[in-house]
Amino acid sequence: MRVFLLAALLASAASAASGPYTITLPGHSAGSFGSPNDPIGAPAGGVAWRSDQEVYTLDTTRVLKRWSVAGGALLATQTLSPLAAVPGSTLTLEDRAPDGGLLLQGQGYRGPQPVGLRARLNLQTGKAQTEAACTASAVTLNRCTPDGQTRAWVQGGALRVQGRGTGQTWPLPKGLKPAVLGLSPDGRRAALLVLTPVADWGDHGRGILYIWNDLSRSAAPQRLDLKAPLLLPGGTLRPTGQGWVLAATVYNTGDGISGGGAREGQWLALFDLAGRVAWQVPATVGLRGAWPSPDGRLFVTLREGSVPEVRRTADGTLLRGLGEAVQAAVPLARGHALVALHGGGGAGRLALVDRSGVRTLAPVRADVLAATATGTLFASAQGRLVRLHGARGEVKGSWTAAGEVTALAFSPDSQVLSAWVSTRTGTLVQAWTLAGTPLDLPAGATFPVQSVVFTTADDKNGPEQGYRERLSVLTLSGKVLWQTPWTRGDLSVQPSADGRAAVVSGLDPQATGDPVARRFWRVHAQTGRPGPVLVMKPTTQDPNSGWRLAALNGTGRLALLGEGSGDGCGWGLLGYRLADVQTGRLLPTPPRLAQGYNRTGDCGFNVPFLEAAFAPDGHLLIQDGNRLDWWSIPGFGVPAVPTGQDVP
User: Which of 206, 520, 540, 589 is buried most, with the most CB atoms less than 10 Å from its CB?
Assistant: First the structure.
């Protein structure tokens, strides 16, 4: 009876959970610039200049931002709707329209058929008027001037230009593959990148650039044989007062991990009026696209799919980034969050964020973060490099992991740091003392390493040749404390931050078809004593859908469960539910938390993948790209951090 009354009290408290307070950092979400459905196509989203002083940037999630170029200040943000004629279309920002609006390219599908449209967007009303005449396609390169009076396209082995009652045609040598077409806003100049194949398979080849300095004449174009890496179709080619700026897709000849396909960065180069390469930036820098300002003195490019950069056209020098991307966020007590920010030029910083603003702790770049419950220590990782930081950001020590670090966590006593590591041969868990001394972990150790070590073992030769798994719990010295029985596969475990409990989950062993229900239960970390089982059935018939543990509070009692789906193309978040895993009961979940984050991603729509975590004082942080949402769940808070151990 006492347990029932306590559960009822907690359910009542959870139902009163207040809406979140939100902190949004200026910038586009990490990875939100990308490609449309073809990974080697032109970047989706893009850039358009409002004037020489202001510029628009559009990412693949249809978030449009306007920036001051001089100081990098964010001036406005709005989210665009898909073109009504092409539901779910990927939008590419083409240019500024003569009437002050924006020109967009929309690529999508009507049933099984690919469809492309050009549209003029009225920024005041948000309405877009479609124009079918100047839409690029995967078959024909096609460019139009902003006023639509001049059109250039490649067809039948020739460049064709039609404008203001006149037309010209320039045949191209046989065997060349058109890659990128550029047309000046006044329709007087054009440039075309073509590829000479180097193999009888694939689309890659050596680049040749043709430049027409006066389209009103029938003179042959200037030809430049590029001394560049092997290229692929796709990129940008735009005029400046000094010539043409090219951003070309580079063929991946082998980067130590794999070969084939396209590199993530593009090869950037400025060709002056004499056809010489004034400067170039290799693909390994990670830039994509180049959009010159109206006066040609500056251009904007996109770094690593996350941060727009302003560069000087004359020499390619970086001037500044436009905003920063939140790469990782860790909730701390009292509304603080530790964040890893990526900025222009590949710079990065670790910072403390709260309602009062952003305070830099360390000028280092990181992809992964972890912090102790008191906030007196934190750790960061970039690639294989692991750093240990003091509360003020100072680096206390560093060492190298066996591969790329994808997650970090401290043990409950803050004396052990563990990492989830990805190598060329697979994944593994590593752990170190705070001095960087590696610890010997038993085979099958799971992340994170706590006061005990959870391991999983699998058996492919179970009854009737069925696949099954078993969870074991060991001390750091290797002594087995307890084990679960062999059960149907896909077991997972998440220890609580205080090290006293854990939540185990696995597929329903009674399920006979997809989608499969998932079971969740809380166990005592030292004894394995289990609590009631909570069974979560998928809410759709999608065979790939199911529930997972999205976040667990410090005591291992309050859980945020997330329902998702995914296949080889994309993924979806179908909803969240709060649960008391100690009693095996669902809790009332505020509608905005339950359904307000639902989304689908990938396949040319690089919407942020949400990250959720509970702070030491019980608040829930949901990172949605550059937006940090703090939720308060009454009844599940813990006492404030003791005096003298506050966050910095």
Answer: 520
